[in-house]
Amino acid sequence: MSSFLFDIAIWLLLFGAFVFGVLGFFGLLIFPDIRSRMFTASRASLIAAGLVVVSVLLYGINAYRETGLDIYLALLAHTVLLVLVLCAGTNVVTRIVKDAVAETILPLDAKK
To answer: What is the per-residue DSSP string for 4-68?
Structure first.
Protein backbone atom coordinates (compact mmCIF):
# COMPACT_ATOMS: atom_id res chain seq x y z
CA MET A 1 0.00 0.00 0.00
CA SER A 2 1.36 3.40 -0.87
CA SER A 3 1.92 6.21 1.58
CA PHE A 4 -1.10 8.05 0.18
CA LEU A 5 -3.38 5.08 0.89
CA PHE A 6 -1.94 4.79 4.40
CA ASP A 7 -2.64 8.48 4.95
CA ILE A 8 -6.22 8.13 3.72
CA ALA A 9 -6.79 5.09 5.96
CA ILE A 10 -5.32 6.90 8.98
CA TRP A 11 -7.47 9.97 8.41
CA LEU A 12 -10.61 7.86 7.96
CA LEU A 13 -9.87 5.99 11.19
CA LEU A 14 -9.27 9.23 13.07
CA PHE A 15 -12.49 10.71 11.66
CA GLY A 16 -14.36 7.57 12.76
CA ALA A 17 -12.85 7.93 16.23
CA PHE A 18 -14.03 11.53 16.35
CA VAL A 19 -17.55 10.51 15.29
CA PHE A 20 -17.76 7.79 17.95
CA GLY A 21 -16.40 10.20 20.56
CA VAL A 22 -19.11 12.72 19.70
CA LEU A 23 -21.77 9.97 19.74
CA GLY A 24 -20.61 8.91 23.20
CA PHE A 25 -20.80 12.51 24.39
CA PHE A 26 -24.32 13.00 23.04
CA GLY A 27 -25.31 9.65 24.53
CA LEU A 28 -24.34 11.04 27.92
CA LEU A 29 -26.57 14.05 27.32
CA ILE A 30 -29.59 12.39 25.71
CA PHE A 31 -30.29 9.16 27.60
CA PRO A 32 -32.42 9.47 30.73
CA ASP A 33 -31.03 6.86 33.14
CA ILE A 34 -27.52 6.19 34.37
CA ARG A 35 -27.23 2.65 32.97
CA SER A 36 -27.94 3.62 29.38
CA ARG A 37 -25.61 6.61 29.73
CA MET A 38 -22.79 4.44 31.05
CA PHE A 39 -23.34 1.80 28.38
CA THR A 40 -23.37 4.30 25.53
CA ALA A 41 -20.39 6.27 26.77
CA SER A 42 -18.28 3.20 27.48
CA ARG A 43 -18.98 1.46 24.18
CA ALA A 44 -18.54 4.56 22.05
CA SER A 45 -15.33 5.57 23.81
CA LEU A 46 -13.91 2.05 23.50
CA ILE A 47 -14.61 2.02 19.78
CA ALA A 48 -13.07 5.50 19.43
CA ALA A 49 -9.97 4.45 21.36
CA GLY A 50 -9.67 1.30 19.26
CA LEU A 51 -9.82 3.31 16.06
CA VAL A 52 -7.11 5.66 17.34
CA VAL A 53 -4.90 2.70 18.27
CA VAL A 54 -5.33 1.16 14.82
CA SER A 55 -4.46 4.48 13.18
CA VAL A 56 -1.31 4.75 15.32
CA LEU A 57 -0.34 1.22 14.35
CA LEU A 58 -0.85 2.02 10.66
CA TYR A 59 1.22 5.17 11.02
CA GLY A 60 4.03 3.28 12.75
CA ILE A 61 4.05 0.54 10.13
CA ASN A 62 4.07 3.03 7.27
CA ALA A 63 6.76 5.24 8.82
CA TYR A 64 8.99 2.26 9.60
CA ARG A 65 8.52 0.90 6.10
CA GLU A 66 9.49 4.24 4.56
CA THR A 67 12.37 5.27 6.85
CA GLY A 68 13.57 2.11 8.58
CA LEU A 69 14.17 4.01 11.84
CA ASP A 70 13.95 2.04 15.07
CA ILE A 71 11.91 4.74 16.77
CA TYR A 72 8.85 3.59 14.81
CA LEU A 73 9.36 0.04 16.06
CA ALA A 74 9.39 1.50 19.57
CA LEU A 75 6.14 3.31 18.78
CA LEU A 76 4.57 0.03 17.66
CA ALA A 77 5.84 -1.80 20.75
CA HIS A 78 4.57 0.91 23.10
CA THR A 79 1.18 0.95 21.38
CA VAL A 80 0.82 -2.82 21.73
CA LEU A 81 1.89 -2.56 25.39
CA LEU A 82 -0.70 0.18 25.95
CA VAL A 83 -3.42 -2.02 24.46
CA LEU A 84 -2.41 -4.94 26.70
CA VAL A 85 -2.41 -2.75 29.82
CA LEU A 86 -5.80 -1.25 28.95
CA CYS A 87 -7.29 -4.69 28.29
CA ALA A 88 -5.95 -6.03 31.58
CA GLY A 89 -7.23 -2.99 33.47
CA THR A 90 -10.66 -3.28 31.87
CA ASN A 91 -10.79 -6.96 32.78
CA VAL A 92 -9.85 -6.27 36.42
CA VAL A 93 -12.39 -3.46 36.78
CA THR A 94 -15.11 -5.61 35.21
CA ARG A 95 -14.43 -8.41 37.68
CA ILE A 96 -14.48 -6.00 40.63
CA VAL A 97 -17.80 -4.53 39.52
CA LYS A 98 -19.33 -7.98 38.91
CA ASP A 99 -18.25 -9.15 42.36
CA ALA A 100 -19.67 -6.02 43.99
CA VAL A 101 -22.96 -6.39 42.15
CA ALA A 102 -23.17 -10.10 42.99
CA GLU A 103 -22.77 -9.29 46.70
CA THR A 104 -25.47 -6.62 46.73
CA ILE A 105 -28.14 -8.24 44.53
CA LEU A 106 -29.81 -11.42 45.70
CA PRO A 107 -30.46 -14.20 43.18
CA LEU A 108 -34.03 -14.60 41.94
CA ASP A 109 -34.55 -17.88 43.76
CA ALA A 110 -33.30 -16.59 47.13
CA LYS A 111 -35.86 -16.38 49.92
CA LYS A 112 -36.31 -13.11 51.76
So the answer is: HHHHHHHHHHHHHHHHHHHHHHHHHHH-SSHHHHHHHHHHHHHHHHHHHHHHHHHHHHHHHHHH-
Distance CA 86, CA 83 (A): 5
The reported pTM is 0.79
Quick: pLDDT tens for 30-47.
Answer: 888 887 888 888 889 889
Cβ(45)–Cβ(21) under 8 Å? yes
Helix axes 70-104, 34-67, angle to 10 degrees: 160
**Per residue in 52-74, is it b (16+ CB within 10 Å) or e — as a string?**
bbbbbbbbbbbbbeeeeeeebee
* CA–CA distance, 78 with 81 (Å, rounded to integer): 5
